[in-house]
Amino acid sequence: MEIASLGKVGLTDRLTEQLIVRNASTFRGAGNDAAVLHYADKEALFASQLLLEGIHFDLTYFALKLVGYKAANACFSKIYAMNGQARQLSLNLGISKRFSVENIDELFLGIEYACERHGVDIVAVDTSASLTGLTIALSCVGEAERQQIVYRNGAQINDLLCVSGDLGAAYMGLQLLEREKAVHTGDSDFTPDFSGKEYLLERQLRPEARKDIIEILAKNQILPTAMIAVCDGLTSDLLHLCRASKVGCVVYEEHLPIDYQTAMMAERFNMNLTAVALNGGDDYELLFTVPLTMHEKIQAIDGVKLIGHIVSADNGANLIARDGSQIPLTAQAWTQVSDNE
Amino acid sequence: MEIASLGKVGLTDRLTEQLIVRNASTFRGAGNDAAVLHYADKEALFASQLLLEGIHFDLTYFALKLVGYKAANACFSKIYAMNGQARQLSLNLGISKRFSVENIDELFLGIEYACERHGVDIVAVDTSASLTGLTIALSCVGEAERQQIVYRNGAQINDLLCVSGDLGAAYMGLQLLEREKAVHTGDSDFTPDFSGKEYLLERQLRPEARKDIIEILAKNQILPTAMIAVCDGLTSDLLHLCRASKVGCVVYEEHLPIDYQTAMMAERFNMNLTAVALNGGDDYELLFTVPLTMHEKIQAIDGVKLIGHIVSADNGANLIARDGSQIPLTAQAWTQVSDNE
After folding, report:
1. Which of A220, A259, A328, B251 is the most buried (most CB within 10 A)?
2. Window B:230-269, CB contacts with A under 8 Å
3. What's the CA gap between A329 and A326, in Å, rounded?
């Protein structure tokens, strides 16, 4: 069905009609110029995310449902990085003539599925024509107790540096998809064999914001001193955290969490595995610091790895390589390897 | 200066360094994954807006500072339409290679100027590359006492239908600019003579969200029963309000507020003036209903016009023409005249 046959109002109505309210803080959801949110007892967290076709996703290998799912998770990850819970999402779409009503339904389904899994209400939907491609603008409101909010600027000297999950897999998934795309250019049917590389693809195509880590930390009564979402690559985001906290850091190459599929693909593509782990984007993991006294507690948590510690700012930010040599972690190295500029 | 020379981090830092906090509800502004907002006593309003180059603005005749100013005002108008005050704004930009750092500074200046005038804090700035053109995604959080919030669905039978300002001028301004652009195609220097048409251009290029109307209504202790921002043209937004309130309406052609410049240009372009007033977009005025008992109070307010009244849903939504004939107001007529799809 052509979008023109429904019109902007019809399309927006079609999407908003199915909305469900899951949270008490959603006092009034979609249907007015603004949603009304009730945050009397807690602080409201406010984050946003813009995803552009051709920059943040390529529809050659990205199903629209997955684009929606990833977009929502990318936005939620910012709320989790504050140690909060995501609650409300607003959605603005710019849609070119290439897309049908069914396409937008599929995209919306992916967003709504992410919202269902994360307990989030979609409280505003707006659509607009676009000259080229698909534009997805999301904003998320979340909640946290003031005392529980974690900022980027709280890291202290001697704090332990921790990261959830593993690094570089989403970036290797992207490399894999890009290379297959280059090989298959001109094929109308893009269905390469990805067996044995499923994890890399899943990390690129279906990332999951780490709500679970926030919950595990709370359960173990661990309040990080500083935290940031790893979106642009570990180095870039780590340097953000260090700069905000006015500290330096030491990261041990041997402690970087890397999945074996990531390692195998780096080997096959003749890429430097450590550079992939440090600079590959789209991980959507959480990087955080905890006091040294939390050492045992953190080590007991599955899915969180100690990768180094905080030092004074004048020591800079450095990687200790496997051979013991010290390599400065440099800003924006990620722009060389990540497509997610 | 090329944006590539600063990089994403450098550009974002450049923009966020200058941010000022104006509101107590901005507990923590830019610099973390999410801003922290404190809305303990009031409800938080949440609205967003997406503006795409070539769809919502044309840089042939739009200075970037004005684009920024208009974008912010468009977003604020949604908060005012809930009878709230705009407080925080988040900003995501998609920027193609065509734009320089100075261009983005100019755009940001326009947004910040609008924020200054409306008492709003910019609490998040993020930038991304874009394949084509400029993408501006804004989200706004505002505040209101729960009892003061006005929705679209509160209009009652016999309520008076009121609109602020005048209608169709922004649309005529757009027509003027588009026609001049067509005439001047190929000219490197686009400086036509617009004397005597300044108001139309100002309404298109530099709209002002009606914070003043919200304040005047409060001062006069008038609480509308329903309200909506007039963005897509009076008819489209009036039908939204009627549908939400499950009512019909009568609008009198002779009471439509129209500036004399709008009328003169419609005459000159041989366009139907009433159609322009009813369907032209980009007015950013407020359309609202008040109880019949407010008749005298409303009439005493400068800049607000009574244009009709609410009837039962089975009477439909109709225009009473100057000759007394009744014409149904039809949905989406705006798509025929407005470029702001």
Report:
1. B251
2. 232, 236, 240, 244
3. 9
Percent of chain B with pLDDT over 90: 84
Q: How far is A31 from chain B (nearest CA, A)?
A: 8
- Report helix, strand or coil for A131: coil
d(CA B7, nearest CA chain A) in Å? 8
Residue type present at position B293: T
Q: Which of A21, A50, A120 to mutate to test the interface with B (most CBs of B within 10 A)?
A: A50
DSSP string, B262-320: HHHHHHHTT--HHHHHHH-----EEEEEE-GGGHHHHHTSTTEEEEEEEEEGGG-EEEE
Q: What is the ipTM of this complex?
A: 0.92
User: In whole angstroms, what is the distance from residue A34 CA to residue A125 CA?
Assistant: 10
Rounded distance between C-alpha atoms, residue B66 and residue B78, angstroms = 19
Give the pLDDT confidence score for residue B191 in this predicted structure: 66
Half-sphere exposure of B200 (CA within 13 A, CB side): 26
DSSP 8-state code for residue B321:
-
Tell me what pLDDT residue B184 has: 76
- Please identify which residue in the block is written with the tokens 């922004």: B170
Residues of B in contact with A244 (CB under 8 A): 31-32
Q: Are B204 and B173 in contact (CB under 8 A)?
A: yes
Give the position of tokens 């009652």.
Answer: B156
Backbone φ and ψ for A225, nearest 5 degrees, come out as -85, -30
Mean pLDDT over A28-57 rounds to 94
Total Cβ atoms within 10 A of residue B63: 14
Q: What is the pLDDT of residues B49-101, one digit of tens each?
A: 999 999 999 999 899 999 999 999 999 999 999 999 999 999 999 999 999 99
Question: Using CB atoms and an 8 Å cut-off, which of residues 66-85 of chain B contact chain A?
Answer: 77-79, 81-82, 84
Residues of chain B in contact with residue A49, where contact means CB-CB under 8 angstroms, are 92, 126
What chain A holds in terms of domains, given with CATH numbers, is: 3-148 (3.30.1330.10), 152-337 (3.90.650.10)
B241/B10 Cα distance (integer angstroms): 44
CA A76, A82, A88, A90 torsion-angle sign: negative
The Cα B125–Cα B19 span in angstroms is 10
Q: How far apart are CA A53 and CA B128, in angstroms?
A: 12
CA distance B308 to B298: 13
Cα B339 to Cα A6, B52, B172, B271, distances in angstroms = 17, 12, 12, 16
Q: Quick check: B30 and B124 in contact, CB under 8 A? A: yes
Contacts of residue B5, defined as CB under 8 A and 6 or more positions apart, other chains included, come to B101
Per the document, the length of chain B is 341
What span, in angstroms and rounded, lies between the C-alpha atoms of A176 and A317?
Answer: 31
Pair B242, B314: CB distance under 8 Å: no
- The C-alpha atoms of residue A307 and residue A298 are separated, in whole angstroms, by 12
pLDDT of residue B307: 98
Token pair of A114 as six digits: 């992410």
Q: Return the DSSP state at B159.
A: P
10 Å CB burial of residue B252 (0-12, 13-18, 19+) is middle
Q: What is the pLDDT of residues B295-316, one digit of tens each?
A: 999 999 999 999 999 999 999 9
User: What pLDDT score does B337 carry?
Assistant: 33
Please give the interface size between A and B, counted as residue pairs whose CB atoms are below 8 Å apart: 234
Nearest CA in chain B to A74: B33
Residues 6+ apart with CB under 8 A from A296: none
